[in-house]
Structure formats: C-alpha cells, structure tokens
Design goal:
The structure holds 2 protein chains of 2 kinds.
Chain A (H helix, E strand, L loop, with lengths): L8 H9 L5 E3 L5 H5 L2 E3 L6 H14 L5 H7 L23 E2 L4 E2 L11 E4 L17 H8 L13 E3 L17 H8 L5 H8 L3 H13 L9 E3 L9 H14 L10 E3 L6 H6 L6 E2 L3 E2 L9 H8 L9 H13 L23 H9 L5 E5 L3 H4 L3 H8 L4 E6 L4 H8 L1 H5 L10 E6 L8 E4 L4 E5 L12 H16 L8 H4 L7 E2 L4 E2 L1 H9 L1 E2 L17 E2 L34 E2 L27 E4 L4 E4 L100 E6 L15 H4 L6 E4 L1 H7 L6 E5 L4 E8 L6 E3 L2 E3 L1 E5 L33 E7 L6 H14 L18
Parallel strand pairs in A: 1-2, 7-8, 11-12, 12-13, 23-29, 24-26
Antiparallel strand pairs in A: 3-4, 5-6, 9-10, 14-15, 15-20, 16-17, 18-19, 21-22, 23-30, 25-26, 25-30, 27-28
Chain B lengths: L2 H7 L9 E6 L8 H10 L26 E7 L20 H12 L37 E7 L8 H5 L5 E3 L5 E3 L10 H4 L6 E2 L6 E2 L5 H4 L6 H5 L5 E5 H17 L6 E3 L12 E5 L19 H27 L1
Parallel strand pairs in B: 1-10
Antiparallel strand pairs in B: 1-8, 2-3, 4-5, 6-7, 9-10
The chains are: A alpha/beta, B alpha+beta.
C-alpha cells in the first residue's frame, strides 16, 4: 500500500501512531513491509491457503464473533442435500461438468429454496427462444445452472422464496453453512499453511493471534488489498476468502473494519459504477440479453429480486432509459428499451484480443490504456492490434500501443513488417486530469470533484470533449435518416452546453444528468424518489443525490476539523452519502452499539428511528424487532436484524449459493503455472479457470510434471511508487524517470548465487511467451521459501517499462499469459513461473529462438497446462 | 550577527520565529514525493538517469540539482519489535555488503557511492547450495530492516557557507534560514568545501551554487515548503523550531517506550558543532549509516582564533618591520 498508494497510506500511519498493529503479507518486503509490525513473506499465489488457515484458526478455536455470525450471516442456513464439498471430491465441488469445463451450480443452493444468480446473470446464447414464454421462475432457474462469470451482476442473488429458508441457529446441523465451513477448512492447519505458503508456523500464529485478539465488540480489524489479490486465476475467491474471515470476526459494517479494495488508478471505482464494462449498465444494472429480454417487463422480471432493495430495479431501469432518450422514451414504446444493445457473449478485454487475432474485432479505442505494455501477453496484444482495420489511441504521449507497428519487438524480430500491417492507427493527444473538470470516485465510493487548473496544451482534449463531439458529428451524419437502426443514436439526449475556444462540454451538466431530474427539471435528492412511470430521469441510480438541491455535492470541501469524524461534508459518497455500507451491523440485533467505543449507527427507540454518526444503511423506521409478514416483498421482506440489505436474505454470505463460477467456498488451487503441486487436493488448478489454448499463449508444465524444472522459479510482477502502471504517465517525465531509471529484477542473494547473477549486472528472464532482460538488484528483501519438499525462489519484476519515453526497457508482460479468473476474466500476472540466467537477451530473431529452445526443452505443446480437472476419481 | 539572536529570533529583532524542518525518518515510506515536489516548485533540472543499485535510491546524494534526497538503507538488524520473519526463513548470508561493494565499484570515486549502503552487513554472498530444504548456510541472515530518510540542507545556526561567501549572495532570512541569492552568486565556490555536510553544490553548466531555500518564496506567503506539503506521512514537518524540537523529543520518548530504543535525534542540539541545525532529524541508527557526518563542526569555527593569531602575527611582523625601519634610521 505504501508502494502503490502512498497518499492513502498516511491514514495507515496515523492508525499505527494510535496503536494499531500493521501486518504486511507479500512475497517481498516492500515499502509497506518496512513500516509494518509484522511482515509475512508468502509464496505468490497461495493467499487462499493462508486465509483458509486463518478461517480454520478462528473456527477450530471458537474465536468467531458468535452473536454477529448467528444473526447477521448465513452461517445458520441449511444447504441442499445435493451439495458436495471439496472434501468429498478431491478438490472439486458438486456439479462439475467435464464436457463444459464449468460447474452446474444448482446443487450449491440452500435447502428448499431456488436460488437465482444476481442481477445480470443469465445464460448466454441459449439456442431455443422458448425462455421468453416461460415464467420468470423457470427462466432464472435455467439460467443459473451455468457458471459463466460475465453473466453475474454485482449484487446478491435473488431468492425466489425467502420464507422457505431453514436455519439452525445453534449452528449444529451438519448441513448448515457453519458446519460445512468448518469441515471445508479443517485441513488448512498452521502446518499446512507453512508447507503450502512458506509462512513459518510461528509467524502464522503471531498473525492469527493479532487478528483475532483485535476483532470483538470493542475492536475491529480491516483488510486492504491492491490488484495483487485480483490478478490470479482464483482472484475473486481471494476476496471472498477475506470476506468469510471478516464476517466470522464481525468486521463488516462496523467502523474500522471492512475489506478495502485499493484500486489501480484514480476513479476505477467510478468506471465500474458507470461502467466501461461490457456486461453492465450504470448502477450495476445488467445488460439485456437478446433471447430472454424482449421487453422491459421480462428484463425486470428476470433480474430484479423479490426481496431486498434490488426489488426496485424497474424504477432504476426506467429512469436510466429516460436519461438516455428523454422525451423519446415513453410508456407506449417501453421507454425505448429496444434501443439498448443486447449482450451476445463474453466481450472482456482478453476475449476481445482473441477476437482481434481471429479477425472478428475490427476496430479498437484505447483511452489511456497501454496494452502493448500493461496487459498480459503483450505480444498477443500487439498481434491482435496488427489485425485490426483501425485503432484509435488517446493518451498523453506516443505510448507503445501507438507505435508498435514501427518499433515494437515484432518489428525487431522480423515477425511483422510495417508495410504489411493493415491497421490504420490514429493518435489523439489527451488532456490530463488537471486540464479538465470532472470527478474521481475512490474506493470508499466517494466522489470528489476536480476543477480544471490549466488549459490542455496543443491539440490535447478531454475525453468528454472527444466523445461528445464524436457523437455530435455522427448524429450530424445520420441526421434525416429514416433507418430504424439509427433511431437510438438520433433520439439520444445529446444536448450538453459547451464553452470556450474548443467547445468543451460542461462536465457539471453530465453530473446533473447522472444525478437525475424530476419531470419539472429539478434535481433529485435520493434514489428512493425514482419512479418507474417515466416521471424521473437518472443516469445512474446509485449516484442519485450527488447533485441534490442543485448543488455539486462532490465539490464539497469542508475540512475534517470543522465537522464530525465521519466527515459527511467532504465530497459525496454513494449511495445516499453513506460512508460505511451495511452499517446496521455496527449495532447488535437489539439495535444497541456493540460497544461504546465502536458505536456508529443505532436504534433510537424514543424517536422510533435509526440514527448515529453516519447515514443509516437501513430503512429509517424499521425497528430491530420487525419481522416480515408472509408474502412481503422487496425491502419489507427483510427483518429488523438483516443488515445486508442488498442481499435477498439480508445476510452476509459466508457461503455463496449462486453467483460464482468456481465454487461457493474459496479453495486453494495452485496458479496456472506453479513450481509445486497442490498439497491440499488432487485438483491442481482452479478447474473453471479460463484458458486461451492458442499457439501465441502457451503454458508451462507445473508442479512435478515433466519439463516443469525448465522454469523452476516463481515470478511475480508489481508496481513501484515512482512509476504509474504501463508508464504512460511517468516514463515521459524526467522527475519520475530519474527516480527509477531502468528496468530491473529483484532476486535474493541465494537465487543470485544459484543462478550466477551479479548485483547491477544483466539478467535474462524467460517464459514460454517471451524473453526479456533486466538489470539485477540483489536484495535481502527477497527471501527463499521452504515450500513442500523444496526451496522456492521468487523473481520480482516491475511491469512499467516499454520501448518509448525517457526511460526505456523490456516489458514484464512479454512474459505473462492469458489464463484468467472465470468470474471476472482477470489475468494471472502475479504468480507464474520462469527461468532466469545471467547476461543480456539475444537480439532480433535469436530472441525467438531462445524462447523456442525453452519450449522444446520443457516439451510444451498446445495441450500443456490446459487440463481442467486433475482429480483422480471419475467425474463427480 | 549574534548567535543568540538567531536562536531566539533569527537575528531580526521584530521578525517571525525561527522556522525549520523536523524530518522523522521513523515514518518515512520512501515515496520520494519530497524530491519531486521540491523539483517541481523550484524548477530544478533532472539529475540524470542512472541506476545506482543503492536499494531504491537512484538519486545518490544532495547536490545542485537535488535539494531533497531520500536514502534507502537495507540492514540485517532488527527494528524495534518489528518481525520480518527472515530469521525463520531458509536464508543465507546477507547481500547488503556485496551490493555496497558492487555499487562502490560501479560508481568509482563518485562522492556518496556508499551513501546509504554501509549497512554493517557481515558476509559476502556465498555460493550457497539451495537444492535442499532447510537453512542454506549456518550463518543465514536473521534480521532485516529497511530504513528510509529524506535529507536536506541543515540551515545551520553557525552556517559556514554564509561566513565564507564573499559576495553576500548567501544570507540569513528573517525565518532564520540560509538562502543563496542566485542573482548575486558569482560562482566562486568557497562555500562548497565550507559546508560540513556536503550539501551546497555548484551546477556544472552555470557555475553558481544551489541548495534548499526552505522554499523562502512560499514562507513569505504563509505556505509551508513544498516537500513538507507533499509528504503523505508527515515525516517532514515544518514549523517554528522551538515547537519542532519539543515535538521531536516527545516522539523519541514515544519510540523508546514502543521498543525502538535506537531512535535518536540528529542536529537538534543547540550546543552541537553547528550551533544546532534548522533542519534536524530523528534517526534509527548512527548518522554515518544515513551518510551524515557523526559530529559536524562549522568549518569556520576556528576562524576568529585564526584571525587573532594572524592579527598577532601581523602585528608582530609590523612591529619587527617598524623596529627595523626605526633601527635603520638610527
């Protein structure tokens, strides 16, 4: 965190100054570890084994926050008889389908309840169109027997009949979640953690004690992670494992608790809220599907939930359509629901690259993105771009993704020649954030407005300018068209006012549109005002209120010294300016604070409402004693002790009955490429992980497979404080470049001795995808790890460098592969294998030959590493 | 100028209190924001792109083009009650001495080659047999700490640079800080060897000397210096020197109570060789480890005595000469 988020780390240091214990888990000692009380060195790719060990430590020592767990989580819920755990199936869950390479998830459900996936989850490309005629119940049931990640939305699953859930609040029933959890994690002992992760038992126990002793009525523990946790073939399950631990310890919905996702860039949170993602509409509304979403009613019936706040989805969807199409959207034409594009499959970034390689994807916009350096398997990225008709790059400088066609590694090797590349490349200089108005949404869901300080130089323009004027010109060209296909564009509300020499659109008007208006044009103040009759328009329901009272709430800057410690008047946080989600859990079931010290939100019986330091995340007047009558719908179906109001059952999910592709409980699998076998199960890797199975993306043999010794070292990639991601914002700046002027690799003195590397000398790092060179930093901050029956060495590589800019060097992503997490399609750049040797890499075609020689020695074919199931038994 | 005036009120009878820096290296996270903010505000050129291999320090030292410098020191020593788990890992000897040697070899006689790398590492890298699970060698490293510290001009109470400046380019401001006036400096370079810390430095292309101004142009407007403003963890604190010294003493006590017994102040004592620094530090090891002189003395300390001797000698010579003339006349 100190390494990649130094500004946010000031609050960690402040907590430390107040007595907090700081623990840092990382294969390397980084700038965070330098300041931590305890650094836990861990083998890259084994965090679920460590977290599972902590969960086991809690459960086997009876350290869970019992009252919280019973009341607020689904620990007591009884599971279906059909469910089989990894304990029964050598590392697989029930429902595995060898032919599909994925899970059918219906056996994971609660007993007696049909569980549907969350909003946005549906079966893609269903062959028969009959689902449109079926009842919503059958449709959703059918959809949820498949497990493709992009079909899941971002909220809890729908429970079609909440009232049939069976619970055992003594937590004794062998089929209750709590007992299943205990059994599942029983084998994650401290000794097993040591053998899998390389974390010595005494270090593990010190960590476990620190966390559990700091999690109770009076104290809370927070977890913070960066993308190091997400970039794995089991990335989503990493976060889930932390969620399980935090729920067991009562650390969710309480001040000082939680799991904090430290994003890779400013406003990555914002770009998922109002998404640049292909499968979601603003506010996590799902993208409609062509087979089952003929009209708005079907769309809403499929994806809204009967119970919980997601039950108001129709109001959110209609208001969004009104924001898009204004007066053209009427009840008679289904509010232009037909104008929305329909999702046709997985269009995530790595699928798109493969579509480019296949010649299916013909055009590509890169807005501040540098895949030729920053994305896994950079070569595949460039070859994909070389197969396009056109490419638009908008960035500050001529990044590698704009110049690969004349000076990329494939030009040097002779694989590509500029004259034979058909891609027409457009470079358009972009304005920096200081050169435009706009908002950042941070990980706390807080919007902070920034004002333009200076005009952008030369031809540089804001993204808003680019997209607004591109739309304006397209609309001009289409004007007068009678074609029905052009109506969605011509009917758009595209009326932002512009100002200045370059006709810059008003960013505040965009924010107003996102916030939403009533029919009379006044700004809405809360998403609870949204209507499904077309009388409100709102560009993103969760952001409703950010312009409440006609005031830009995101621009508020009242110092913390002049307001309460929750600081509600600094910026604006969605939803409803609530700073801490699910904060009903900060009070006990009776509505009283768990302790004086941790009081946050509580029930005021005399006033008959919830009150506290923050905006309560609960119906304001729903008493703790409220129990829903039979047949209650939406939020009224949740009781007064159900804090997790976006979940259909109002509970925190220790166990996920639907919504995940790769299992209801986090389970340790080795990375796609690992120096050791999986010591916990016969199942080696995540069986549901995605694989490209392409010649351009070969995988290594793993564990004890023949040839795995050709790539004996663990490789992990990361960022440095001094540079930013793929370098577009730092490698062109002298003040930053001089601070980290050259690509380097970090190795322990032990690995240096073993591989013959010298401090400040050169090393060549090789995988089946490529070979790069780097200067060597031999450092005590890297330590060998005793794992299983062997020593594991790590090679550490920052991934900032490329061929352009003031400081240049080989890119670490020449080495990485495109095996992906099945839920969110994120690459595994944090844990793979490699070889390292002294000296510079060969030049030109010789570089390809070196890689080819390694592939041959390791016996790599297109099949290597692509087995989904590796358990010994037959198909479960 | 009377030293008491500098200590008490900067030498300006009705001026503001003496201002300075307290750099608490125990909370430095090595982000180098101070280096960048300093360069941005003062429009300092870059200092060249060279990988020094001194841990994450690629700046090396203070100079004409580097007015803040963050040192990174890797050591096989414990830090307070911190547990870095190295002792329980299968490690061999430390790399720090080998790294330092490589850096020194690579940099040749470049000043500061070992800055930040003299870590007390005991053993060079051996040819360890890493094929077996278990300690690689019996003398495996047991501890690890990574110290970071942002260095800057000390703005001495007795500033030798100021004493030796023949043009009056160097001056003491109303805030008690020492500033070079770039339009007066003639590039004589007398101040460079005069500085006991090796801070002030000539820029090769214009010959003039440059160093930290404690952002004199910001202080007048009531703003704190750029580095202190940018520091995310308040490792760099700016304020009236009296208050900073008080705060620093409390911080040392706090760290001692927390088990960091090696915490100590450097440059805070008004009775030290420079009469107390306007920019002082909290360190976690001997000053030499960070590249600081252990007991700096203002290089002009002996000047008055030398001048007295000189004057006596001159008087003696004059008397002799006079006597000779007088005698000759006789």
């Amino acid at each position: 965190m100190a390494e990649c988020h130094p500004v946010g780390f000031q609050w960690v240091m402040e907590a430390k100054a107040r007595g907090a214990t700081l623990i840092h888990v990382d294969p390397r000692l980084t700038r965070t570890g330098a300041l931590a009380d305890l650094h836990v060195p861990i083998r890259a790719g084994t965090d679920i084994a460590l977290l599972g060990g902590l969960i086991n430590y809690v459960l086997s020592n009876g350290l869970e926050f019992r009252e919280y767990v019973v009341a607020y989580t689904n620990a007591a819920t009884i599971l279906s008889e059909d469910f089989r755990d990894t304990e029964d199936l050598d590392g697989l869950f029930s429902g595995w389908q060898d032919d599909e390479g994925s899970y059918a998830t219906d056996s994971w459900q609660y007993e007696g309840v049909s569980v549907a996936g969350s909003a946005g989850k549906r079966k893609q490309g269903a062959k028969e169109g009959k689902s449109a005629e079926e009842s919503g119940k059958n449709r959703s049931r059918e959809r949820h027997v498949t497990g493709r990640g992009h079909e899941h939305g971002s909220h809890g699953a729908s429970l079609e009949d909440l009232h049939q859930i069976r619970r055992d609040e003594t937590l004794q029933d062998p089929r209750c979640v709590f007992q299943i959890l205990k059994r599942h994690y029983g084998r994650y002992t401290p000794e097993m953690v040591a053998r899998v992760c390389g974390v010595p038992v005494e270090v593990f126990e010190q960590m476990a004690r620190a966390i559990t002793e700091n999690s109770n009525r009076d104290r809370t523990t927070a977890w913070a992670y960066s993308v190091g946790w997400t970039q794995h073939t089991v990335g989503v399950q990493y976060i889930r494992a932390a969620s399980v631990l935090q729920l067991l310890l009562g650390n969710i919905g309480r001040p000082g608790g939680g799991i904090l996702a430290l994003r890779g860039h400013a406003s990555i949170q914002g770009s998922t809220d109002i998404p640049t993602l292909y499968n979601l509409l603003p506010g996590y509304l799902p993208m409609p599907h062509p087979d089952s979403h003929g009209d708005l009613d079907q769309y809403v019936a499929d994806d809204s939930s009967d119970t919980g706040y997601w039950g108001n989805m129709r109001s959110y969807a209609v208001s969004l359509l009104k924001a898009y199409w204004g007066d053209a959207a009427t009840a008679e034409n289904d509010f232009c629901f037909d104008y929305l594009p329909r999702i046709t499959g997985d269009h995530s970034t790595y699928k798109t690259v493969q579509a480019q390689l296949d010649g299916v994807c013909k055009g590509y916009f890169l807005n501040g993105q540098n895949p030729a350096v920053g994305s896994a398997n950079a070569k595949a990225q460039r070859l994909g771009m070389a197969n396009l008709d056109w490419l638009v790059v908008r960035d500050f400088s001529l990044i590698e993704s704009a110049t690969w066609w004349k000076d990329g590694p494939e030009i040097e090797s002779g694989e590509l020649r500029p004259e034979s590349i058909g891609t027409e490349v457009f470079f358009l200089p972009a304005a920096a954030h200081t050169e435009k108005d706009g908002s950042f949404t941070n990980t706390q869901r807080m919007l902070q407005w920034h004002h333009k300080a200076v005009e952008p130089p030369g031809d540089a323009r804001s993204d808003l300018w680019f997209w607004f004027h591109l739309g304006r010109v397209i609309r001009q060209k289409l004007a007068g068209s009678a074609g029905a296909m052009d109506r969605p564009i011509l009917d758009l509300t595209w009326t932002y006012s512009t100002s200045g020499e370059h006709a810059e659109p008003s960013a505040e008007e965009v924010l107003q549109e996102i916030n939403g208006w009533k029919a009379d044009g006044t700004c809405l103040s809360s998403y609870e005002e949204l209507k499904d009759d077309g009388s409100t328009a709102c560009g993103c329901w969760i952001y409703c209120g950010t312009y409440a009272g006609g005031v830009n709430q995101a621009a508020r800057r009242k110092p913390h010294t002049e307001q309460s410690w929750v600081a509600p008047e600094w910026g604006w946080a969605w939803p409803a300016n609530r700073r801490l989600l699910y904060n009903r859990a900060s009070a006990d079931p009776d509505g009283k604070p768990w302790s004086e010290q941790k009081a946050y939100v509580w029930w005021d019986a005399s006033d008959g409402k919830w009150t506290g330091h923050d905006v309560p995340d609960f119906q304001p007047t729903k008493a703790p004693g409220y129990r829903p009558p039979d047949g209650a719908k939406r939020e009224d179906a949740l009781s007064g002790i159900d804090p997790f109001i976006m979940q259909a059952d109002g509970k925190g999910w220790l166990y996920v009955p639907a919504g995940l592709s790769d299992g209801p409980l986090p389970t340790h699998y080795e990375p796609q490429e690992s120096p050791v076998p999986n010591l916990l199960y016969g199942q080696r890797q995540n069986p549901a992980r995605q694989l490209t199975k392409r010649a351009v993306d070969p995988y290594h043999p793993s564990g004890d497979e023949p040839g795995s010794q050709v790539f004996p070292y663990a490789l992990t990639t990361y960022r440095l404080t001094e540079h930013h991601t793929a370098g577009g914002m730092s490698r062109w700046l002298p003040y930053l470049s001089e601070l980290q002027p050259e690509m380097f690799c970090e190795v322990s003195p032990e690995l240096a001795a073993e591989a013959g590397l010298e401090h400040l000398g050169w090393a060549t790092i090789v995988t089946a995808r490529g070979a790069i060179e780097a200067r060597v930093l031999v450092t005590d901050r890297m330590v060998p790890m005793r794992v299983h029956d062997r020593l594991v060495h790590h090679v550490g590589l920052p991934y900032h460098w490329g061929g352009n800019g003031i400081t240049t060097g080989d890119g670490a992503n020449e080495l990485t592969h495109m095996s992906l997490d099945p839920n969110v399609h994120i690459q595994e750049a944090k844990a793979l294998t490699c070889d390292i040797r002294p000296g510079r890499r060969p030049r030109g075609p010789d570089r390809l030959q070196l890689v080819e020689e390694y592939r041959r020695r390791a016996g790599i074919t297109e099949e290597t590493g692509t087995a989904h199931r590796t358990t010994k038994e037959g198909s479960p | 100028m009377s030293d008491d005036l500098i200590e008490d009120g900067t030498g300006y009878p009705d001026g503001p209190p003496r201002m300075g820096f307290f750099t608490d290296t125990s909370v430095c996270i090595g982000c180098k924001a101070c280096e960048v903010a300093c360069k941005e505000w003062n429009v300092i050129p870059d200092d060249g792109l060279s990988l020094l291999g001194m841990s994450y320090d690629n700046t090396g030292m203070l100079g004409a083009d580097t007015w803040r410098h963050v040192a990174f020191i890797e050591q096989d020593k414990p830090l307070g009650r911190q547990n870095n788990a190295v002792g329980s890992m299968p490690t061999a000897a430390t790399a720090t001495r080998a790294s330092a040697d490589a850096v020194a070899g690579g940099l040749g006689d470049r000043h500061g080659a070992e800055l930040g790398t003299d870590t007390g590492g005991r053993h060079p890298v051996g040819s360890a047999d890493a094929s077996l699970p278990g300690p690689v060698t019996a003398d495996g490293r047991k501890e690890l700490r990574w110290l970071m510290a942002s260095d800057v001009c000390k703005h001495c109470t007795h500033a030798a640079c100021l004493d030796v400046c023949p043009t009056g380019s160097l001056l003491r401001t109303e805030f008690g800080t020492v500033v070079v006036q770039e339009d007066i400096c003639n590039g004589c370079g007398y101040c460079v060897p005069a500085c006991p810390y090796g801070v002030i430095d000539q820029r090769k292309d214009d010959g003039r000397v440059w160093k930290c101004t404690l952002c004199y142009d910001r202080l007048g407007a009531g703003q704190e210096p750029a580095c202190a403003k940018a520091c995310p963890t308040d490792s760099i604190q700016y304020g009236p020197l009296d208050e900073l010294r008080e705060r620093a003493a409390e911080r040392v006590d706090h760290l001692h109570d927390a088990g960091v017994v090696e915490a100590r102040l450097y440059g805070a004592d008004p009775d030290n060789g420079v009469g107390g620094a306007g920019a002082f530090f909290l360190l976690l090891d001997e000053p030499e480890v960070y590249g600081f002189p252990p007991d700096p003395v203002v290089t002009t300390r002996d000047l008055p005595r030398m001048w007295r001797h000189t004057a006596l000698a001159a008087a003696g010579v004059a008397a002799t000469v006079l006597a000779a003339f007088l005698g000759g006349r006789r």
